Each structure stands twice: as structure tokens, then as C-alpha cells.
Amino acid sequence: MKKQDRILAGHAVSFVQDNVFVLFLLVLIACACIFVPNFFTKTNLLNVFIQISINGLLATGMTYVIITGGIDLSVGSVAALAGIAATAILTRMPEDTSLAVCILVAVLAALVVGVLCGSFIGFAVARLKMVPFIATFVVYSAARGFAYIYTHSKPIYELPDSFSTLGVGYVLGVPNLGILLVVTLAIALFVERKTTYGRHIFAVGSNEEVAKLSGVKVTRIMLGVHITCSVLAALGGICLASRLGSGQPGAANGYELHAIAAVAMGGTSMSGGSGSILKTITGIITIGIINNCLSLLRVDSYWQPVVMGVIIFAAVTFDKLKVSTK
After folding, report:
1. Distance of CA 20 to CAs 197, 211, 262, 267, Å?
2. Which of 51, 29, 24, 75 is nearest to 260 (CA)?
3. Residue 130: which H helix or E strand, with range?
4. pLDDT digits (tens, 9 = 90+) for 203-251
């Protein structure tokens, strides 16, 4: 083989390695269009867009956490607690409460729950040097427990009618949840690509000690990353409560698995230091299409967690193999 041919072959292999998850998504879409009934219809595609929106919010915050070399097991519980907090307040308001007031209450509830939970995790990880798995598991247990204690394990109903607009409403034919996700992803991508804070996230994930010696305020970055993750999880929980029309203490159970799967499937390194919001978008769409296809094919819902586990295993394995070949 000539030198030029070897170079081209090397570039081709590198391209496939760097874009394998995008290529997998394209193949998945093609197979879904051919083999899954009613997949490529306007109604179903809008349904997929709605389904991925809440997981997309959680996965966006999870991306930052994983880039720093951590992981957050608490996002599902934080989402449930935020949904309970918002609906508990809204039940004390008149049924004709305006949409603007409902959104304000929801955002404030998300901020309070998200900041409190994220601050605890960030402090435990950055200051107390607690393993992220343990720190986030504490919040995972406590947040879910508080949700069940406050509600006595019962859903919260009788919410203002306007609250459901956030979760099921449309603007010019586009779901409100989809618009929220697109705006969130755009802001996250801007922070990643255009700000010093975004560059420092990667620096901490690549080598925390070197980042600290370079003048990066590691504690501030870790706090910011975990607060962002928890706030977005809380916002996702409120959107889920709006979509369900009630506050459910058991809501978002297992959503942390879907968020981690989306980040891993996008190609973000689970070891930290590399990844991007764009890659996570690929993962979010992939997970959404897989779940949608399983539903359309009437596969038992108990198999979906199995599929998520296989996806995470495959993504992490590929990541390790890719690192070892460099």
C-alpha cells in the first residue's frame, strides 16, 4: 500500500472513530423508517420530540458533570422533588391562575430545589472530596424520600388549568417542551464554546491538579456544574409534572439512567475531559428513537431498562477501546 493510501485509510479510520455514534444514529433512523410501522409520520416525530425534551434537559446538565469526571445519580429524584414543590404551591392558587404566574412559580421552585441540591453535591465533591457516586446517591435517596414524606406517597392534583400548557401546549405547531429544550441546548453550547467557564470545565475534567495550578478555581467550577445539573433536572421535573397534570412523588424514576445513556451514547468520555453538547444531542435523539421504536413495536416496557444498560455498556466499552488505540 502506498504512503498516500495509508494516510487516507488512517484518516478514514479516525473519522469513523470520531463519528461512530452519529453514523449509528443515521443507520438507526434508516432502519426505523424501513422496519418500524408509522415511525416516519408527522405525529410520531412530534411525539419523539416531546419525549426527548425532558431527558434532554437532564442530559444537558449531566454532560457538564461527566466532562468534569463525575456522575450524578440524583437527577431523577431532584426532578420529582421539584415537581412536588411546584405543584404543592400551585394547589394553593386559584384555578384561573395565569400561565405567566404558573411559569414563575415553576421556575422559582426549580431554582430553589436545584440550587440547594446542587450546592450540597458540589460542596461534598469539591470541598469534602467525597466520591461523586456517594454524594449524588445521598441526594438521590434524600430528595425522593422528602417527596414521599411530604405527599404521604399520594399524587398532588387540582392544579390550575394553565399549568398544563407548559407540558402539552404548542407554539406555531412546535411543542413548548421542544422549544424549551432547543433554547437550553443553545445556551449550553454557547457556554461550552464561547466562554472561559466552558473551557475551565474541560480543564478540570482533563486534570484537576493541573487546572488548579493554572489558576482555575476548581471549587467554583464544580459547584457551578452540579448546580446547573440539578437546576436543569428540577426544570425537567416541573415540565414532567405539567405534562402529567399532577405532582407524582415517584415521577422521573430511572431518568438518571436515560440521561447517562444519552451522554455516553453521544460519545462524551465517561473518564472526563472530553465531550460536547453537540455529541449529547446525538445521544438524546438516539435514546429517544430507540424508546419510540420499542414502543411502536410493542416490546414489553420491562425490556427498555435492559436496552439502556446494553447501550451504556457498549458506549463505555467503545470509549475505552478508542482511548487505548491512541
Report:
1. 28, 30, 14, 8
2. 75
3. none
4. 999 999 999 989 999 999 999 999 999 999 999 999 999 999 999 999 9
CA distance 189 to 183: 10
Q: With contact defined as beta carbons under 8 Å apart, do 167 and 247 qualify?
A: no
SS3 at position 244: helix
C-alpha cell read off for 162: 394553565
- Ranges of the chain with pLDDT below 70: 1-17, 319-320, 322-326
Phi, psi of 37 (to 5 degrees): -60, 140
CA angle at 250 for the pair 98 and 277, rounded to the nearest 5°: 75
Closest Cα to residue 245, out of 181, 163, 300, 189? 163
Count CB-CB contacts under 10 A for residue 246: 19
Which tens digit of pLDDT belongs to each residue from 314-323? Answer: 777 776 676 5
Place of cell 494516510: 7
Residue 136 has a pLDDT of 97
